[in-house]
Amino acid sequence: MENAPGKRAREMRDKAQELEQAAQYASDPAERRRLTEKALHIREKSEQINGPGAGTMDPM
User: Fold this and answer.
1) Which among 1, 8, 13, 38 has most CB atoms closer than 10 A?
2) What is the pTM of this model?
């Protein structure tokens, strides 16, 4: 069973990845930049919750 902060961090990373993918397809440079910055902000917040790379490896 996954802990709540770990689950939240994973959800945040997933959302950041979705935003990065959306930015790749955005035709407007301002929209692309906005999506990229939002994804970066979410990733930084995720790292504050659980540390860098938290939840990317199964501890056992």
Assistant:
1) 13
2) 0.71
